[in-house]
Specification:
Blueprint (H helix, E strand, L loop, with lengths): L7 E3 L2 E3 L5 E5 L6 E6 L3 H20 L2 H17 L1 H12 L3 H6 L2 H14 L5 E3 L3 E3 L8 E11 L2 E5 L5 H14 L3 E5 L6 H12 L7 E3 L6 H8 L5 E5 L2 H13 L3 E5 L5 E4 L5 H8 L1 H4 L11 E5 L3 H14 L18 H16 L3 E4 L15 E4 L6 H4 L6 E7 L2 H8 L7 E5 L3 H10 L4 E4 L17 E2 L6 H5 L1 E9 L1
Parallel strand pairs: 8-9, 8-11, 9-10, 11-12, 13-14, 13-18, 14-17, 16-17, 18-19
Antiparallel strand pairs: 1-2, 3-4, 5-7, 6-7, 7-21, 12-20, 15-16
Helix pairs in contact: 1-8, 2-5, 2-7, 5-6, 10-12
The chain binds nicotinamide-adenine-dinucleotide.
Nicotinamide-adenine-dinucleotide (NAD) binds next to helix 8 and helix 9.
C-alpha cells in the first residue's frame, strides 16, 4: 500500500476529490507526509447517500457475517501494523512508544471486541403483564420483548489525537449493530483512516457500508450532519464544535453521541501516596504531550501536601525529555500543529498575567523545527482563572489547593466540564465517597488506568451518551418494543 491513493472512499469506489488535495504536515519535522483529498459538500452528501443505500442489506445480514467481517478487519489491521505505525507516527507526531502501542493495537482490540459482540442477542426479554380489559383491548396476559435495532446511517466525526482508535471506537460497534457509516476524520491526520478504508475493502466490507471523506475545513463535516440521509452523529472533539453539531443535528432530531472536552481534576487528599499521585498527574506531560481529553490536568491538593507535591512534579518534569518523537528516549513529542501550540502558549500567558507562577517549563523548547511545548506546571492558580477553567489539550498542569473535602469537591466540580476526574488517597472508601460527589462521567481512584468494560462519556459540557464495552452497542441502537397477547 502507498501512503495514500489520494482519493475518497464512497460506495465501495475510490473517487477523485472534487476540490483537489491539501498537504498533511508532520508536526515534528514540518514536512509534508502526504496529500489528503479535499472532498466537496456534494461528495459528503454522496457518501451519506451511499451509506443509506447499503443500510438495508447490512442491517438484515446474519450477525455471524457481520462478526466475520469485523474480525477480518482486525486481522488485516494486525497484518499491516508495520506499515501503519510509521504513518500514524508521522501524521500525529506521537512518540514511537505511543504510536506503536496505543494506536494500531487498540484499534485492533476494538474491532475484535465488537466482532464478538456482533453475535450478542439483540433481544431484551421482558416479563409478561396481566392487563385489565379496556375500551382499547380485551386485556389478559400480554407478552413483550424489546429488540435492539440499528439506528441507520451514522456520521462518525473524529478528532486528531488518536485517529484510528477514535474511529474504531465508533465504527466497530456501529457496524456490529447493523448500522452503516460515513467516517470524517480530523483534517490534521486523515491518511491512516484512508489506509483503513483500503483494509476494510480488502476485508470484504460490502460497498457503501463504510465510506470515508476527508477535507481541510469544517464544511464537509457540517454537510454530513445536515444530510437527510444521516440518522445519527457520533462526534468526538471539542465542546465548541460539539455545540454547533448538536444545534444542527437537533433540528432534525438526529441521534447524537457526543464525546467532548475535559478538564480533569485530580484531588490529592492529605493521606495520598504522592508517588502514585505524581505518576498519574504527570501523565498529562508524559502521554501524547497532554493531547488527551481524560488527562488529570488540574492537581487539587490539600494545603498540607502542596509543597511536597509540587517538588515531586517538578522533579518528574525533569525526566520528561522533549524532542524528536522517533528517538526512543523522548517522552514528550510535539503538539499537532502551530495553531495548537499557539493556543497553549496563549493560555499560559493568560495564566501568568492573572497571577499564576510557572514552577517548571513555560518557555517554548529550542527546537529548530516542530510544534513543541514544554511540560509546564503552573502554581498559585485559583479556580476562577481561565487556566483553571479552559482545556489546554497540551502538556500543562495547574495546581490548586484546598483545606477541606467540601472545598476540594467544589473546585473539582467548578468547571463546565465533567469527563474524567481522579481521587488519590490511601483510604479508598473515603475516595469512593468523594468520587460519588464528583459531577464527572468517570472517576479513577489512585490510577489513571482504564477499564474498557466501563461506560465512557461525560457529564455537563463533556458530552452526551456513553460508549465503550457493551454500552457502545446501546449507543448505536434504537430500542423497539414488541407486544402480543399471551
Ligand atoms: P475539533 O472539535 O476541532 O474537531 C473534531 C472534528 O470535528 C474534526 O474532524 C473536525 O474537522 C470536525 N468539525 C469541525 N467543525 C465542524 C462542524 N461545524 N461540523 C462538523 N464537523 C466539524 O477537535 P480536535 O481539535 O480535533 O480534538 C481535540 C478536542 O477533542 C479536545 O477538546 C478534546 O478534549 C476532544 N476529545 C474528546 C474525547 C472524548 O472522548 N471525550 C476524546 C478525544 C478528544
Amino acid at each position: 500500500m502507498g501512503v495514500t491513493n489520494g482519493r475518497l472512499f464512497i460506495a465501495g469506489d475510490w473517487v477523485e476529490p472534487a476540490s483537489g488535495h491539501y498537504g498533511v504536515i508532520n508536526p515534528a519535522t514540518e514536512q509534508v507526509v502526504g496529500e489528503a483529498p479535499e472532498a466537496s459538500v456534494e461528495q459528503a452528501q454522496q457518501a451519506a447517500a451511499a451509506a443509506k443505500a447499503a443500510f438495508e442489506g447490512w442491517a438484515a445480514a446474519d450477525q455471524s457475517y457481520r462478526s466475520e467481517v469485523l474480525g477480518r478487519i482486525a486481522d488485516l489491521l494486525t497484518k499491516y501494523n508495520d506499515d501503519l505505525v510509521p504513518l500514524v507516527q508521522a501524521e500525529t507526531g506521537a512518540t514511537m512508544r505511543v504510536a506503536s502501542t496505543m494506536q494500531v493495537p487498540v484499534a485492533v482490540e476494538r474491532f475484535q471486541r465488537y466482532a464478538r459482540h456482533a453475535l450478542d442477542s439483540t433481544l431484551v426479554p421482558l416479563p409478561p403483564q396481566v392487563a385489565e380489559p379496556t375500551p382499547l383491548a380485551k386485556g389478559g396476559m400480554m407478552g413483550a420483548l424489546a429488540h435492539r435495532a440499528p439506528v441507520g446511517v451514522v456520521a462518525c466525526i473524529t478528532p486528531y489525537n488518536f485517529p484510528l482508535v477514535n474511529m474504531a471506537g465508533k465504527v466497530a460497534p456501529a457496524l456490529a449493530m447493523g448500522n452503516t457509516v460515513v467516517i470524517k476524520p480530523a483534517p490534521q491526520d486523515p491518511l491512516q483512516v484512508l489506509r483503513f478504508a483500503e483494509i476494510a475493502q480488502e476485508a470484504g466490507v460490502p460497498e457503501g457500508v463504510i465510506n470515508v471523506i476527508t477535507g481541510s475545513g469544517p464544511d464537509i463535516g457540517a454537510a454530513l450532519v445536515a444530510s437527510p440521509d444521516v440518522d445519527m452523529v457520533s462526534f468526538t472533539g471539542s465542546t465548541a464544535v460539539g455545540r454547533k453539531i448538536g444545534e444542527a443535528a437537533g433540528r432534525d432530531i438526529k441521534r447524537q453521541l457526543m464525546e467532548l472536552g475535559g478538564k480533569g481534576a485530580a484531588i490529592v487528599l492529605p493521606d495520598a501516596d504522592l508517588d502514585t499521585a505524581v505518576a498519574g498527574i504527570g501523565s498529562t506531560w508524559a502521554f501524547h504531550s497532554g493531547q488527551i481529553c481524560t488527562a488529570p490536568t488540574r492537581a487539587i491538593v490539600h494545603r498540607s501536601r502542596h509543597d511536597e507535591l509540587v517538588d515531586k512534579l517538578v522533579a518528574y518534569a525533569g525526566f520528561c525529555k522533549v524532542g524528536d518523537p522517533l528517538e526512543p528516549t523522548t517522552v514528550v513529542g510535539p503538539l499537532i500543529s502551530a495553531a495548537q501550540r499557539d493556543r497553549v502558549e496563549g493560555l499560559l500567558a493568560d495564566g501568568v498575567a492573572a497571577g499564576a507562577t510557572v514552577a517548571v517549563g513555560g518557555a517554548r523548547p529550542g527546537m529548530e523545527r516542530g510544534f513543541y511545548a514544554a511540560p509546564t506546571l503552573l502554581t498559585g492558580v485559583t479556580p476562577d482563572m481561565t487556566v483553571a477553567q479552559e482545556e489546554f489539550f497540551g502538556p500543562v498542569i495547574v495546581v490548586l489547593t484546598f483545606d477541606d473535602e467540601d472545598e476540594a469537591v467544589e473546585i473539582a466540580n467548578g468547571t463546565p466540564f465533567g469527563l474524567y476526574d481522579y481521587v488519590f488517597s490511601t483510604d479508598t472508601s473515603r475516595a469512593y465517597k468523594i468520587a460519588k460527589r464528583l459531577r464527572s462521567g468517570n472517576v479513577g481512584i489512585n490510577t489513571v488506568g482504564r477499564n474498557h468494560e466501563t461506560p465512557f462519556g461525560g457529564f455537563k459540557h463533556s458530552g452526551v451518551g456513553r460508549d465503550c464495552g457493551v454500552f457502545a452497542l446501546h449507543a448505536y441502537s434504537e430500542l423497539q418494543s414488541i407486544v402480543w397477547p399471551g
